[in-house]
Each structure stands twice: as C-alpha cells, then as structure tokens.
Write a structure and sequence with these properties.
Radius of gyration: 21 Å
Largest sheet: 7 strands, parallel
CATH superfamily of the largest domain: NAD(P)-binding Rossmann-like Domain
Number of strands: 12
Oligomer: single chain
Number of domains: 2
Order of helices and strands: EEHEHEHEHHEHEHEHEHEHEEH
Strand content: 15-25%
Distance between the termini: 19 Å
Strand order of the largest sheet: 8-7-6-9-10-11-12
Amino acid sequence: MKVVISDDYQDCIRGLDCFAKMADHEVTIHNDTVKEVDAIAERFADAEAVVLIRERTPITETLLDKLPNLKLISQTARGVNHIPLEACTRRGVAVAAGGGNKNVTAELTWGLILAASRNIPREVQALKEGRWQTSLGHRLTGKTLGIYAYGGIGNIVAKVGAAFGMNVLAWGREGSRERATADGFEMAASRETFFETSDIVCIHIPLKPDARGIVTAADLARMKPSALFVNTSRAGLIEEGALLAALKAGRPGFAAVDVYEDEPVLGGNHPLLELDNCLCSPHLGYVSKESFEEYIGGAFDRITAFAKGEPIDILNPKALK
C-alpha cells in the first residue's frame, strides 16, 4: 500500500525497530505539520493509508473529499475525536485505532511537578551562568495533591504522590469517586474544596466535547497563591484564556503545562512562554522510544492486516462494506 505518515517531528520513525514492518509498503514521511486543508490534501493525495500520530493532523469532511484514494486511517492510540467516523464510513474509509501506555504520561507529569516544585530548570540555568543556589523550592511531603479525574493516568500519579508522603485528594465524576475510594484515597467534599485545598492540581481528562473548558477561571481563582497547576492532558480542558489570566493574577502561583491550544508551538510564540511562573514543555507526555515503538508499531500492524484483507481494530466496520 501507499502509506503517508505526517508530523514525525523528531524524524525518528525510520529509526524505530517497528519500521521494518513497512518493508512491503511504499512509505512517505513528513517531519513537519501543515494546517491548511489543501496542503494536507496535497501530501495525502496518493495515499491509500495514512498514519496519524495522535491528534497532530485533524481529519475533516472537506479533506476527505479531496482524498479519493484513501482506504484506511491508522491512528496511533485510541483517541479519535479528531476524525469524523461517520463521514469516513460514508466514504468507505476504514478507521483503525488502538494501544497506548498510561505510564509514560504519568512519568512526565511527575517530571514537571518535581521540576516546578524545586525550581530545577531555573537552578540549572543559574549554575551554567556561574551562580549557586538562587532560590528556595518546596518539598512535597505533607502537601495535598489534587487529582482531577481518577482514571488510568490519575491513579498512577496519585500513588506516586502517596509514596512521597502527600495527601491525595480526588475529584471527578462517579467513576473517579468509585476508583479513588477503592484505592483508599479521599474524594473532595465539593469542587470548590478541591481547588481551594490542593497544593498541586493535576488534570487527567480526555478532551471529549463535554469536557472542553471543564476547568474554569473561577476554579483557578480558588487555588492558593502558592499552588501549582499541572496539565499534561489537553489545553482545551481549560476555559479559553483562563490559565494565562490566572497566572498573571497569582492564583495559582505557578503552572506546568505540556499541551497547547494550537500545536506545534514554534518560534517561542506562546504567551505562557513569557511568564516566569509557568514551566512549559513541548507535549512530551506520550513521547518516548518505548511508547513510539508501541504506538507506531501498532499502527503499522493495522496497515499490514488491512493489506492482507484481514483488518483489525476497525472502529467503523461498516466502511469495509
């Protein structure tokens, strides 16, 4: 099959062990992102199958109309909110998805918490500039760690916090309540109490339509001036403009974010990057050698199976008819 892969930012896919699975296919890889529909259509014009790395390239009906050769979209991980399944089905385009590793995002979350709490990036830079111990960080022991949505990632983050001697406080829907309680963690008495009490708030919510803007300006305004807000999920979960305004107002006092409304962020062009009280990383949550072998390798397996006439992990099986 003619396969096109977009958004290989690190130019790493050909170096993955799993790339050997594509030996019998004609593969084109693009290392940058284009946003315009016509530009994407030009890149995908000859593709019978495309591999999408997470949500880096959204698929629209307008784009699908320009891709008559397309038969399969092989999505890395399970989330497909950026793909119109019904529209794909009507056009006979199968969508296959699956896999994922929750640990790697939980690890990055803790990397940001530790870096922000102990001022590690600032102190490393100061040392390079000839200075020694320029600030006081904060310990985690005895602090309250707020987990918004106690699911696959949230429970890992919570258990690490407990190992550090933190008080874990959960918030979320009924499923979060049941899982947190089963693991022995406290559920906040109210949404207001959750944000007011937590010294660190981490959100671990999938960006589904009903979750957009779920964290509001009022929620952030309730946080302590000493608190840290951490987002390794999706920027769209926060009310538009609310985090920037909150950090400028000093509640919460600090944030660590890995996700942005429009990615990739190039040229250092984002207002959060201009703030001294915000630690920003370039959406590294799921990015590791091991997770890419799993994510991309799974996408390749789905292409190989489809080419053999034995499709797997198809989300819209009616498209096959």
